[in-house]
Amino acid sequence: MYDRILYPTDGSEPAESVFDYALEIASAHEATIHVLNVADTGRDSLTQRQEAVAELEREGQEIVDEAAQRATDGGVAVVSEVRRGTPSTAIVEYAKQFNVDLVVMPTHGRRGLTQFLVGSVTERVINTAEAPVVSVNPDGDRPRTYPCENLLVPVDGSRGAQLALAEGVAVANATGAALHLLHVVDTGSLGLDARSILKEDELTERANSIVADAVETAETASVETIETEVEYGSPARQIRSYIDENDVDLAVLGTQGVTEFNRYVMGGVSAKLVRTSPIPMMWVREPESDDAA
Q1: Which is the most buried residue in 49, 134, 147, 208, by most CB within 10 A?
Q2: Overall number of domains in the chain
């Protein structure tokens, strides 16, 4: 399923703490892991300072060499490279050049979580990479394990959720994980007079229809274990609660492109999940059409 996995690293403690998880994924799928360090020459202060760039490259080579040795010691095939450029752009270009199947990276590195929330390398990669991206919060206290045993896909009938479901079904079949399908009726967005406009049974009927369609997709793909749930309230809060209550160890979510994801990041469901999720989150984005205007 995943033959080539990309792990971008800046050598920081957060990045290194997530590397073991990336190696577990690579080992489970007998994949080659690509370790990439980007010497950040996108900053104006460095464009004319060749000595500084050379030093970044030397540091980067040490970082990827150390990571590559760890992979080799763990029996995982590895290639490594140091590139110059703007980190997010270089990562996405590398992934496309080598037909990477999956990108795994921490939610934040040297600059910390605050930088992520206002536009980090990880966010930009999620926005633009064609391959799925697994974001891992290195500060989480829950052990990270792969293959996963309980995989969650929140479903809402959107195109993004359909993409996430397709990836989630594939991962569940590859790992033998139980597939959890959760729909959250966002009662907070309905307004004070919602019950006079949309009856509760109508909301429940729609929710059950969405879940039933997702179950049919999973059953058609021969997923062995499927669990379903419909909850009411704040989507981010209900998803987080479901993760905690059901020992979920990987969640798969979809996004339909830069505009939609940015809206989430600046204050929606995805932003809250990124900030608080104790488990890795896989983001699936629909590739842009080559003939798009």
Answers
A1: 134
A2: 2
